[in-house]
From TrEMBL:
InterPro entries: MeTrfase_RsmB-F_NOP2_cat, MeTrfase_RsmB-F_NOP2_dom, NSUN5_7_fdxn-like, NSUN5_RCM1_N, RCMT, SAM-dependent_MTases_sf. This is 28S rRNA (cytosine-C(5))-methyltransferase. It comes from the Eukaryota. S-adenosyl-L-methionine binds at C206, A207, A208, P209, G210, N211, K212, D230, D257, D277. Residues 403-441 are annotated as: Disordered. The active site is at C331. It holds the Pfam family NSUN5_fdxn-like. GO terms for cellular component: nucleolus. Residues 98-396 form the SAM-dependent MTase RsmB/NOP-type domain. PANTHER family: 28S RRNA (CYTOSINE-C(5))-METHYLTRANSFERASE, NOP2 YEAST -RELATED NOL1/NOP2/FMU SUN DOMAIN-CONTAINING. Belongs to the class I-like SAM-binding methyltransferase superfamily. RsmB/NOP family. It comes from Spermophilus dauricus (Daurian ground squirrel).
Length: 441
């Protein structure tokens, strides 16, 4: 049984660490690979549990006395090995090529759609399905350590649940019913930072397929108005499905070139908030294979064309007369589409400045102009999210650092994490399929 057990059925990290990468021999257990295999398979699970997992926990059978005898030495050797190699985490012992990529470690973020349910009910539903709720995370490390059927509340964004990276919820009844939106954390920031209060009028200038629009509608509690524009009829069609499923009722969708929307049209007299998430190179998108990131940098010509459009769209948006606050975002990592666009727009619109948002966010704009540190960047390595860029503009005469902080405080203050069980039957009716967050058009 030992020899015939398939190596493929073993945990790959364990195989790499204990056998393939020769950790046992590095630990001083001289054995050929074949010997190692025979020697190792049943106890390898135990060694794994001992060194990397949760200990023997009552298992072990006839191997247990042997391993118990060597337990202290194994642990000491592992610790020594890490010191020798100057690393602190077990996974850093692996060859670079066999380490999990940062992209594959980005957790599955799930926004609870407060138009249809509340966090407490969503959490209860998952608990009834055998998931274990760990409360509100206090750091990115908590998110990085998530595994199995554990889940958390995000440390920063309320209503954002976090599951281990490979969790697939595309068939989950709450997702199909529009109670949950599968949306990366970075993509939840634009609406959160725009923070339109209920009753406001908002423009979503490049809106399809609409995850940020549905987030805006949730913040508005469906009170007020969202004017959502997009050029692409097909994307607008899937957006209409997505919004219907999410219970959005405060949105006017229009197949329109945003650059042709007149800022002086009286329909937009009351628009104080604009979200501009224009087409971009998508160089930060997670769905791209890792090899493409960086090496798949868009051509200078494409970047120039994209940045030209982004620049025009941003200046057009800043010309709406009642505008107080605007969020500019891309899922691009390129300075040309991000800091450069923002710098030029500020130069051309001296009535606006950058709002100093989320001072504790670890990844800031590239220091290419004074104030660029107010911009936010995001990446798998630094924030455990997709690659993203955000700048928040506010009208300079609005005495706003205070008012903005007030506006954001309720959104971002880490409120008490839902703990209590509340009884309510969740709606498990399946709805039609729709698009997950999409960018980079
Ligand atoms: C990055 S995607 C927007 C994603 C969307 N905000 C979301 O969160 O689901 C950019 C969108 O801009 C649209 N677009 C491009 N040029 C446009 C224009 N001139 N006016 C309006 N929409 C435009 C594209 O069709 C595309 O759907």
């Amino acid at each position: 049984a030992v020899v015939s057990s398939s190596p493929a059925s073993l945990d790959s990290r364990f195989r790499a660490l204990i056998c393939e990468e020769g950790l046992l021999s590095q630990l001083g257990w001289a054995a050929s690979r074949a010997q190692c295999w025979v020697l190792v398979f049943p106890p390898q699970v135990l060694v794994y549990e001992l060194l990397l997992g949760k200990g023997f926990r009552g298992a072990g059978g006839r191997w247990k006395p042997l391993l118990s005898r060597h337990q202290a030495r194994l642990k000491a050797e592992l610790a020594r090995l890490k010191v020798r190699q100057g690393v602190s985490r077990n996974e850093d012992l692996l060859e670079v090529g066999s380490r999990p990529s940062p992209v594959s470690q980005v957790p599955r973020f799930v926004r609870v759609n407060t138009l249809k349910t509340c966090c407490g009910d969503a959490i209860d539903y998952f608990k009834r399905q055998g998931f274990s709720y760990q409360g509100q995370a206090s750091s990115l490390e908590d998110l990085r350590a998530l595994k199995g059927k554990h889940f958390l509340l995000d440390p920063l964004l309320p209503e954002l649940l976090v599951f281990p990276a490979q969790t697939d919820l595309h068939e989950h009844p709450l997702y199909l019913a529009g109670h949950l939106i599968l949306q990366d954390k970075a993509s939840c920031l634009p609406a959160t930072l725009l923070a339109p209060p209920p009753g406001s009028h908002v423009i979503d200038a490049c809106a399809a397929p609409g995850n940020k629009t549905s987030h805006l509608a949730a913040l508005l509690k469906n009170q007020g108005k969202i004017f959502a524009f997009d050029l692409d009829a097909k994307r607008l069609a899937s957006m209409a499905t997505l919004l219907a499923r999410a219970g959005v009722s405060c949105c006017d969708l229009a197949e329109v070139d945003f650059l042709t929307v007149s800022p002086t049209d009286q329909r937009y007299d009351r628009v104080q908030y604009i979200l501009l998430d224009p087409s971009c190179s998508g160089s930060g998108m997670l769905s791209r294979p890792l090899e493409e990131q960086g090496s798949g940098t868009p051509s200078q010509e494409r970047l120039r064309a994209l940045a030209g459009f982004q620049q025009r769209a941003l200046c057009h948006a800043l010309s709406f007369p009642s505008l107080r606050r605007l969020v500019y975002s891309t899922c691009s990592l390129c300075q040309e589409e991000n800091e450069d666009v923002v710098r030029d727009a500020l130069q051309q619109n001296p009535g606006f400045r950058l709002a100093p948002v989320l001072p504790s966010w670890p990844h800031r704009g590239l220091s290419t102009f004074p104030g660029a540190e107010h911009c936010l960047r995001a990446s798998p390595e630094t924030t455990l999210t997709g690659g993203f860029f955000i700048a928040v503009f506010e009208r300079a005469e609005v005495p706003s650092s205070a008012s903005q902080a007030e506006a954001l405080a309720p959104e971002l203050a880490p409120g008490p994490a839902p703990k209590r069980k509340r009884r309510r039957k969740a709606d498990v009716q399946a709805a039609g399929a729709a698009a997950e967050a999409a960018c980079g058009k």
